[in-house]
Amino acid sequence: MDRRKDTPFQGTKLPRDYLKLVEDVFNKNFSKKLTIEKGSKEIFVAHGEIFPDELLLCMSLKQPKTLRMTTCYASVDYPAPQFKKESGKPATTTSEAVQFSVNVCVDALASFFNSFFDDGRPVDYDLEYSQGWTTVDIDKNTRVYLRITRDNPELEAEADALLAAASESKKKKKLH
Q1: pTM of the predicted model, to two decimals?
Q2: 149 pairs with which residues across the strands?
Q3: Which residues touch 111 (CB under 8 Å, ≥6 apart)?
Q4: pLDDT digit string, tens, across residues 76-93
Q5: Which of 57, 89, 146, 150 has the lowest tally of Cβ within 10 angstroms?
Q6: 3-state class of 119 per DSSP?
Q7: Of the segments 22-31, 65-74, 83-92, 135-144, which one has the largest average pLDDT value?
């Protein structure tokens, strides 16, 4: 997944069961706007990672029986300012901080896809949407960054896995 921050930190994928819940919310709430092609309906697919300095949630509208996707990335600074120890507020758990950040991203992603459908699914991204990171201020303490692309995160994850396996295989051959 494409990060907004250029830091060397390794991320941890958000649990698949958790992402499935997010997908279900999107598929249910936008069900009347999803099209059916060749007997298959469009679906939303979620991916997410958490880093020591950023939470990244990605929602893709997957076209049936093709590799085409409309993908929106949402990124927030992690932990959110109100969850940092120096904020002066009572200590919160890591899970509360993650839940807050995911909820902010979900709201921003839902807002984008609502506009996307209301605007008639514009396809000219160079004119309609900025492919760089766009800042959205939710309130004085909460800022979300959005990026809209034609990325296929599932395909990218498969390619990354194949490259990692090939690299591991090459290392093992060198040892023998």
Answers
A1: 0.83
A2: 71
A3: none
A4: 999 887 777 665 565 578
A5: 89
A6: coil
A7: 22-31
